[in-house]
Amino acid sequence: LRLENDLHTALEHGELSIYYQPQLDLTKGKIHAIEALLRWHHPRQGLLYPKHFIDIAEENGLILAIGRWVLQQACRDCHAWQQQGLAGVGVAVNLSARQFLHMNLVEEVSQCLRDAHLAPELLTLEITETTAIHHVQRTQLILQELRALGVGITLDDFGTGYASLNYLKQFPITGLKIDRSFITDIEGDRQDQAIVKAIIDLAKSLEIPIVAEGVETWGQGQLLQHLGCKAIQGYLLTEPLPYSQVIHWSIPRM
Ligand code: G
Ligand code: G
Ligand code: MN
Ligand code: NA
């Protein structure tokens, strides 16, 4: 309850910030996008992660104001890094179910792009399977409008839900992220390997770019590359970084 009270003033007190985690295109050896990950610098409890407060924000509706702020800030930061050595590198912003259904999403996204002078192609929205499962037609319409703006739509945590394949069929998805739970043991677990290979092959035949998340070791990265995965994200490259560090970060030698 205390946390909930504090969350009401977190935005105006400037306690929220965005950390950024790059995605490496293995075929080009270049960063192609960077995911925005929300953090809360709590005055007494220190650095808090989304798992500590996103559910609260969803329940009390603060997620709408917070989500709007994340979108604005991420678009501004992405615009700024175009001139700071990261030209052509896009930004990926996570959206939760409530944002998706209750924000005036299409209007707000296009407003953010305009305000930040950001090319729509540089923005990708990450949704999960739970985002919209009960509102298929409405979701289809919103996603089509977002695609018409030029914004990308990535399906996050792919493979963990019940409806992954349905989503691919029904929605205009432009990217997939293989959930970290399939990556963790991929080197030792043949079943995980088979699942990941199937997802990669599926994405390839549907011509949808794929990113493996939660890649922590060089071995995992190599195996994924061998299986045909063209992009990775995870601690192998770096943990999520504050903006001030992102522009000075460079791809580690592997
Ligand atoms: O930051 P961390 O790596 O702990 O992220 C955990 C999860 O929190 C992510 O998978 C993502 O779905 C969610 N998340 C991170 N940032 C945001 C955000 O800005 N908005 C929403 N709705 N979810 C976020
Ligand atoms: O949107 P999503 O929930 O997928 O966000 C990714 C989450 O995973 C964030 O909380 C991020 O901090 C975390 N993360 C990013 N890279 C790694 C990794 O290599 N290993 C682990 N365990 N977590 C990671
Ligand atoms: Mn994500
Ligand atoms: Na994820």
Automatic annotation (TrEMBL):
User: Domain EAL: where?
Assistant: 1-254
Protein name (Swiss-Prot/TrEMBL): EAL domain-containing protein
Q: Which organism is it from?
A: Thermosynechococcus sichuanensis E542
